[in-house]
């Protein structure tokens, strides 16, 4: 081998050693110092755990009462205004105002015709309808009981949530 090649290899080896020695220092002395200072600081006092009061069970005296853990049945709950399903006539012809929910109807006036007071009701389809006592309106089997100057009173038959039906008095008030 020639001396130039040997000198080149030696120079390359020296350079590699210098580069590796430069990487050996981790340059994190300031970080180590910060961690040591933080550990040396005065540690605060930790409050003791609070005392937990002992649980006092409540004795349930079920004498003469319904068991709260058994499912309820329609017979066990008596609600006022309960309707017999025979009172709901599902075979009768539906009236035009029964196609709309009650909140989509507006009472806009009244008129007397043939000795009876009729309510003038506007629906969301833009049409105006007449209704009198005994007519049905709304989607919950609502039957008009009274038509006055300012409102229409009706009784709806709604589900009670446990398989039965109940009466719900509702009013449709004159729109201003």
Helix and strand arrangement:
Layout: H1 3-23, H2 29-40, E1 82-83, E2 106-113, E3 116-122, E4 128-131, E5 136-137, E6 142-147, E7 151-159, E8 165-173
Antiparallel strand pairs: 1-8, 2-3, 3-4, 5-6, 6-7, 7-8
Please tell me about this protein's structure.
By secondary structure, the protein is of the alpha+beta class. It has a domain at 82-173: SH3 type barrels (Roll). The chain has helices spanning 3-23, 29-40, and strands at 82-83, 106-113, 116-122, 128-131, 136-137, 142-147, 151-159, 165-173. The strands form 2 sheets. Strands 1-8-7-6-5 form a 5-stranded antiparallel β-sheet, with no helix packed on it. A 3-stranded antiparallel β-sheet has the order 2-3-4, with no helix packed on it. The longest helix has 21 residues, at 3-23. The chain starts with a helix and ends with a strand. The mean pLDDT is 83.
Shape: elongated
Name of the level-1 CATH class of the domain at 82-173 = Mainly Beta
Helicity, as a percent range: 10-25%
Report the sheet with the most strands, covering strand number, pairing sense and barrel closure.
Answer: 5 strands, antiparallel
* Ends distance: 112 Å
- Order of strands across the main sheet: 1-8-7-6-5
Structural class: alpha+beta
**Element-by-element helix/strand order:** HHEEEEEEEE
The number of helical segments is 2
Low-confidence stretches: none
Strand content: 25-35%
CATH architecture of the domain at 82-173: Roll
Q: What is the third-level CATH name, the topology of the domain at 82-173?
A: SH3 type barrels
**Averaged pLDDT:** 83
Rg, alpha carbons = 44 Å
- The total strand number stands at 8
């Amino acid at each position: 081998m020639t001396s130039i090649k040997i000198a080149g290899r030696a120079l390359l080896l020296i350079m590699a050693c210098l580069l590796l020695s430069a990487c050996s220092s981790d340059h994190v002395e300031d970080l180590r110092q910060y961690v040591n200072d933080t550990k040396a600081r005065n540690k605060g006092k930790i409050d003791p755990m609070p005392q937990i009061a002992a649980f006092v069970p409540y004795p349930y005296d079920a004498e003469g009462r319904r068991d709260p853990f058994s499912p309820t049945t329609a017979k066990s709950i008596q609600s006022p205004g309960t309707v017999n399903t025979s009172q709901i006539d599902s075979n009768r012809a539906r009236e035009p105002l029964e196609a709309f929910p009650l909140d989509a109807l507006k009472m806009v006036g009244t008129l007397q015709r043939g000795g009876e007071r009729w309510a003038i009701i506007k629906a969301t389809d833009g049409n105006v309808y007449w209704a009198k006592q005994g007519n049905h309106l709304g989607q919950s089997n609502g039957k008009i009981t009274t038509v006055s100057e300012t409102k229409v009173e009706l009784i709806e038959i709604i589900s009670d949530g446990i398989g039965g039906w109940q009466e719900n008095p509702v009013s449709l008030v004159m729109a201003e």
